[in-house]
Amino acid sequence: MLSENAKAEIEQLKGKYPDPKSALLPALYVAQREHGWLSPEVMRDVAEVMDLPPAEVASVASFYTMFNRQPVGENLIQVCTNISCSLLGAEHIVEYLKSKLGIDVGETTPDNKFTLVTVECLGSCGTAPMMQVNDTYYENLTEEKIDRILAELAERKG
Amino acid sequence: MEPLVTLTIDDREVTVPAGTTVLNAAKSVGIEIPTLCYYEKLAPFGGCRICLVEIEKMRGLQTACTTVVRPDMVVRTASPEVLKTRKAILEFLLTNHPLDCPVCDKGGECDLQDFVFKWGPTESRYIEEKRHKRKAYALSPLIVKDEERCVLCRRCVRYLEEWADDLQLDYFERGRLTRVDTFPGQPFDSVFSGNTIDICPVGALTSRVFRFRARSWELEKVPSVCAYCGVGCNITLDVKTNKLRRISGRENPAVNDGWLCDKGRFAHQYIDSPERITRPLVRKDGELRPASWDEALNLVSQRLREIVRESGPRSVGGVGSATVTNEAAYLFQKFVRTVLGTNNVDHLGRLPDGARPLPSMTEVREADAILLFGADTLEEAPVIELFIRRAANLKGTKVIVANPRRINLTRYGGPWLAYRPGTEVALLNGLAHVILAEGLHKEGRRVAELKEWVKDYPPDKVEEITAVPAETLREAARVLTEAQKAVLIYGPDTVRGPNGQACLTALNNLALLIGAHEPGCLAQEPNSWGVLDMGLAPHLYPGRQRLDDKVRERLGKRWKAQLPSEAGLGLDEMLKAALDGELEALYIMAANPAMDHPIGDEALEKLKFLVVQDLFLTETAQLADVVLPAASFAEADGTFTNMAGRVQRLHQALRPLAEVKPHGQIIVDLARVMGQEIGATMPLEHYSPQAVMEEIARVAAPYEGLSYGSLGDDGIPVTTEGGTRRFAQADFRPPATDAAYPLALVTGRLLYDRSPLFARSEIMRQLVPEPFVEINPADAETLRIADQDAVTVSSARDSLELRARVSDDIRPGCVFVPLHLNEMPVVALSEAGAAVTWVKVTKR
């Protein structure tokens, strides 16, 4: 499952720490970057490269919400619903996204383009309301802005 | 000696060694502080907060389980604040913990229940809906998990980390969603899984075998000893209405320290199996039919007498087993010698002369290097495996594995000496060579002779013979000699066969060179040592006395019998004699030679008369003329002597079913029918194991002075003379090869197999793997065999049909076939007495 490149990258990460075990979080990111989510098979591979019990790897992965333990679409939309964003209409942003995409929070569009989730504070309160799509922040959101962003993302090749 | 620290706990002055925790200091003077996450055999964790105490000059309450005592500390464990906090913590736990105690198997022995009873809130203020999690789902065929009951003390996870070194459980999610679970889709299949039930403080982990079979307070607790392997784990038999409901670990630091393997804990359902023989059976018109004890014993008596009268006592013999108690074994050999009048008495799986018991378990646990030669503790002595894993994991104990198979313990990087079967002596001589050549041996040994004997075994040559790389051999020698306390353990098969004695000599040489304890044998049966001590062998009287005239005369007087002077036949010889028609009758107790001996079935079929006493209609019993129903280990009193030479007591916990009788009782009854009282000191009417032990204590020197009273619950180690230890020459003879059969057969036991008792233990038997042959990928490729292919393994003698398991866990040039997995006996492939069995594997 895990490519040889990813395995080599994890091996390299292990060398960066006095205790190679410490490389587990970055190793999981490497795996997630490659597969989009952490399937049991991928976690087993990580465990093997890391020389850790699979249960420990899965345990760590389940502790952090930023690791996906279900498949996600090409674009993972994470809308902040924490206090600042909420005061500036995050609930409305979520509703708008739901109706635009035709899915509920936690779901993926049938074409596998978008997954919608809500998250806690992403540290961008000064530009609320905001969302993060994959690794990019989109700030000061309005309906028009969302239309534009979604159109752009839908066109982008996966 | 640690310096002492004096402090005050609840106004009492307490003096304890420095480094003691407040919790243990309090415990030492009988002050109870409740704990949930703390468990004395695990490192302190400080996670549950229930042990909070007040310590003067420290801010806030402190966890007693992690706080180390300091001079003049003033501790209060029952101040109003401590009690209020304790109650609050319990109340908080109960907001989520379901109050399903009436249907919880832990009820009555639950720490949380007991703590609330003592300190907890008497009423619940919580009116919200409780948190809901998964209830009663199977973590494995053996263990049920209830997530709602779990208090997240992490004992199970820490035990798997610190002892089993096999982290199959861990925390998942976080916060209020946190739960203990396995890796997604993976069963909790450690063979040490059941210990988590014992240490779980609540009913989160429970047994599927015990599930809803009794309330804990209804159980009568009977101390006993596990009857599966040679470790002799101390157990408690939990009984209700004459049924064995549960087995749990019993504390004995000198043996299993409270731990058990899953086989010992769960595989007891055979006792209630509907397949148990409950009445004597006598063959009539070719079929085994129920008969009365009188009829059966009279027939046995009459037929044995006839055969002895017509063909002489040499034509009859007795075969016992190392699964019966000392008392039964003693009576059996006495019966054969005094009533039948022959020394033709032996047992299956007899350890060779010169094999020695393991040093005490404590020495094994404290070793800093262990050489495991031709043995696999995971399959053959799991609790020792548990001890070794802990030592390797936490203390860095080196585990050197000499085995053609990559056993679990090779994972500690030991090194692994994967020798070719039949080259053991060369390998051991090679180790001695390296040690001598590099001057690594202990000072003060007179090594000149040994140097001469092993001079032809330099590492390069040993590599050629054994296929163990010269560098690996050197590394092993270094690891062994660098150790302060090395322990050498070997499997019984290593020291059997034509090279057995040479192997034993070479092992002894090695131990002497490095200043280690005598190498110890990993005896496989629960009473392998005991039955030898009892004289269940043709050449030994009780106390392992040789059959000389003086001893014979003395014993004859005591037994009030004329003892035979003619040497007896061993098992191999008896079966050969049966094939030749010279041996006409056999009496077999709890052994299954039809499956476990290369010529067993054909030899038994030739007999004129065969008597078998056993629990089940085994392959051997099916051939018998008379079958006598015998009691299980839980249905009789007695003693076992474990692989470290410790004599331990089994207490009868159950009345035998219907007409079943203890092995010893059957022998006594038969002897009486035959007109002899074989227990001079025994009451006439019934069999008294206690009286038999008293007799043993008088005739078998190592057992002198032993009695049921003196054994207590922990048992007593006995030592048999080992003789002087000196270097000796161990000759290596290259094994004969056979071009038509190019692969060496390696056999071994698996923990979960189809042996008669395990295969009839309902829940556990689903864990037995399908029969297989393990073959190295290199050999598989040459033979064009793929994983899971149906193959035939054949030797010059016989063949077996199996599935191939292609794996580099077995070295090239060898195949591994586990014993007791097939309908067909694996031993039938082997020539009795051959050093190596050569086979070929072909695709079907």
Explain what you see.
The complex is a heterodimer of chains A (158) and B (844). Chain A is 47% helix and 11% strand. With 158 residues, chain A is α+β, with helices and mostly antiparallel strands. Chain A folds into two domains: 60 residues, Orthogonal Bundle (Arc Repressor Mutant, subunit A); 81 residues, Glutaredoxin, CATH 3.40.30. In chain A, strand 3 and strand 4 form a beta hairpin. Chain B has 844 residues and is α/β, with parallel strands linked by helices. Chain B folds into five domains: 75 residues, Ubiquitin-like (UB roll) (Roll), CATH 3.10.20; 146 residues, Alpha-Beta Plaits (2-Layer Sandwich); 251 residues, Rossmann fold, CATH 3.40.50; 161 residues, Dimethylsulfoxide Reductase, domain 2, CATH 3.40.228; 101 residues, Barwin-like endoglucanases, CATH 2.40.40.20. Helix content of chain B is 28%, strand content 19%. The longest helix of chain B has 19 residues. Chain B is globular, with a radius of gyration of 29 Å. The relative contact order of chain B is 0.10. The mean pLDDT of chain B is 94. Classes of the chains: A alpha+beta (158), B alpha/beta (844). Chains A and B meet through helix 3 and helix 4 of A and strand 8 of B.
Features:
heterodimer, A: 158 residues, alpha+beta, Arc Repressor Mutant, subunit A, Glutaredoxin, four-stranded mixed sheet, 7 helices, 4 strands, 47% helix, B: 844 residues, alpha/beta, Ubiquitin-like (UB roll), Alpha-Beta Plaits, Rossmann fold, 5 domains, seven-stranded mixed sheet, six-stranded mixed barrel, globular
